[in-house]
């Protein structure tokens, strides 16, 4: 089936394709579709950076954005790190975790990382088809051969308790995924990871921390508005988050393909 070119801006020409309709992972009552940059197109960090500014994300080697025909609940958001002011609860979380060490490591397979990832998924997604990943699927989801990705290890003395997967792009950092020891709930490790990434973006003199998609009616995705100032991508521009009721999104219609055109869809595809 022929693929039609789509122009995202006057700087980038690319082919955009659409996945077959499937049940939404975050709003089960809805049918979802996802637009994906042609998997055969050559990608690099510059290309990814430009698409991140249009609300796209990375999953493995694929660059995607939700494109659902009857729903626009997935809204790309980013934190203006230089203006970020933590809330009182976030300051408590920061102080609580000052006994941790954080170390950047290469995005390579490590059994220690993989075992923590499996433990985290079993706690968060048990029975959903994601809680028994293979080593190959784990690395295909988190890493990419064309992107500058860093795994940040969070350790309590010698114990690995969290890993953040972060992409470095030109104007910011992109938080791909974080997994952590699920029994350490009092530490709020997910919150701490975001706070640490904000500080890392500041240290690197970047403007933004891209958090992926905010979804108002999903508890696992709605927390992102707790980090302010926040911008959201709507109607082709980034706008200051003021009131969630003002947010609208109008993704463009795209040319659908069959599952045979996208064999990688048989692997779990996560939004973040």
Structure commentary:
The chain is of the alpha+beta class. The protein has two domains: about 90 residues, no CATH class; about 170 residues, Gcn5-related N-acetyltransferase (GNAT) (Aminopeptidase, 3-Layer(aba) Sandwich), CATH 3.40.630. The protein has six helices and 15 strands. The strands form three sheets. It has an eight-stranded mixed β-sheet with strand order 9-10-11-12-13-8-14-15. Strands 1-2-5-7-6 form a five-stranded antiparallel β-sheet. Strands 3-4 form a two-stranded antiparallel sheet. The chain starts with a strand and ends in a 32-residue tail after the last strand. The relative contact order is 0.21.
Throw out a few tags for this protein:
Aminopeptidase; 21% helix; 272 residues; 5-stranded antiparallel beta sheet; 6 helices; alpha+beta; 15 strands; disordered N terminus
Summarize the structure.
The protein has 272 residues and is of the alpha+beta class. It is built from 6 helices and 15 strands.
Set down the secondary structure blueprint:
Blueprint: E1 5-7, E2 13-18, E3 22-23, E4 31-32, E5 34-37, H1 45-52, E6 57-59, E7 62-66, E8 75-80, H2 88-96, E9 100-105, H3 111-124, H4 135-142, E10 149-156, E11 159-169, E12 172-180, H5 189-203, E13 208-214, H6 219-222, E14 230-234, E15 237-240
Parallel strand pairs: 12-13
Antiparallel strand pairs: 1-2, 2-5, 3-4, 5-7, 6-7, 8-13, 8-14, 9-10, 10-11, 11-12, 14-15
